[in-house]
Amino acid sequence: MRKLLLLLVIAALACKPAFSEDFPYGNYKLEDMSMKSYAKDPTANAVVLQEFGKSWISSNDGLPLIHEYHVKIKIFNSKAFDEGNVTIPIYKYDNNSFQRVRDIEGMTFYTDEQGMVQRSVLDNKKVIIENRNKYWDLVKFAMPNLREGCVIEYKYTLESPNPLTFRDWDFQSSIPKIYSEYEARIPAYFNFKATLRGPYKLTKNTGDIDRDCFQVRGNKCDCSKLVFVMADLPAFIKEDHMTAPKNFMSAINFELSDYINPYDGTKQSKTQTWADIDRYLKQQDEFGSQLRKTSLFKEKLPEMVAGKTDDLAKAKAIYVYIQKHIKHNNYTGIWSLNGIRKTLETRSGSIGDINLSLVVALNAAGIKTEAVLLSTRENGVVNKLYPVVSDFNYVVAKANIGENSYLLDATDAQLPFGLLPIECINDQGRVISLDKPSYWIDLKASQKRGQTYLMDLTLQPTGKLTGKITQYSLGYEALEKRKAIKKFNSLDEYVENLDEKMPKIKILKSNITNLDSLDLPLSEVYEVEMNLYNDLNASRLTFNPFIFNRFTENPFKLAERTYPVDWGAPFESRVVLTMHLPADFTLETPPQQLSVGLPNTGGQFITDYNNDKNVLTFSHVIKLNQSIYSSAEYPYLKELFNKIIQTEKADIVFKKQ
Length: 657
Known about the structure:
The protein is mainly beta. It has ten helices and 37 strands.
């Protein structure tokens, strides 16, 4: 949930001499040292006692952006020792322009065996800089003398050569915070818009004037001084089935609207429109210029579409050709880094190289195709109010055939035509065309995650269960299963590994089909023998039909979840058991019959059985019809999985007559 903050016009702000201050460094409180747990979250392994940040644009040469950070954290137990391993990412614009960290100070307060409070100071010689990649370095240090019950405190200054990218502030983190304060001081030359993100309201938000705070070449101006405070913040707990945490954590984000160049007085607009973005992309050699190179496929097209007469068949053939002939080199991004010509020659390329090649090849075949920019689930949701190219980190193709459109990603050899990776199912994508304005489209899964288990088993007089287990995997389930199988050198090796993981089940024979037929369900058929019972002299026998993919733990544990559950795609699982019993056995404890539904037909859980003479038929169905469930629907989803787990624990009991 996002809420726009209206920044007050500087001229309208009341001038107040009293400003917020950073808290003193190097002091401790006895109540902090004696704290055994955090009253508002007794399960927390640590809590931020106090946190202060301040950012401002300096009048120094180059107008660097200065950010000071200061925090004090109480460590309750060893599970929170990672809070003492500090990593500060610093961005490198080029060899001569990069961020740098300075004035690092750190101290650990702890109680010794005599009950006296001691302090251990961070040795700056142990601060290291690690090269992450071309664009990022990591400044790292470890707080000294960590132990249960200690309090750590550290501070540093981060200097950036780019004043146009103002420092954001994350209020929430993985541990709760008692108090978090951020001060932003912005000269009147710069007009930033601030956005409050997340579910929590500000405890304090003030705006003041700092007179004559900024001076360049003798020209002075006032600064707006903005203070944002949140108190008693709960920890942000990550759970399964969510997109990037930064989409939902409470934070303040800044976007530059426009500014006056302090050196020459010219006004510069930084708020781009989509028309600006479109024009920029179409002019770039790594994007728009590549999309015009349809002639590169003139000689290859006859081979690619040989024997295909309709557009859909041609599109599938071109898609498979690109999949098989160009290998992904593990570089992501929207740009064609090598260029399409070199990509075709080397048969290797980035996400942009491969999928822009696909766009061009389809257009060369007369199939109207556009590029779609998107942000992956881990990269976060794109800010649609203030378009920025750097928000996107992935590109796919959108082929328009007849009345239908197909989103295509040729970077993965296991992806069927029209199915995007789950990581790309993230809100909306921006369609870029060379001959019309760009527009948004919803990124939705074209297939569900489906699995069906059919088990036909017979209880033999020897006490063994024999029979056949058939598994069908569809959509994303088939994609993941195919990838798992392909990791092995052969099907026999995969089956052998599967057999080893199920000690009570012996696979006698196997048949796996449609492994390379990506548009068809993946089929696995196993003839099995189960040594569950030594003999049939026992008066009662128990059997649990959930041999595969049994839910043993509820993925939803939070008392309240403030962000949606995002599966990426609908889900459906079916288990059908047919069990043949000897004539002298009857069903004593049947499976539970249930029918539980989610509100608004969001899903259901159904179990049913039929016992006819000596044949038991049992069915178990889970349907999750939505890709996304809101936080209001979370309690119902949580309870549904409680029912599923409880039901799958229960054994079927057979009694000997």
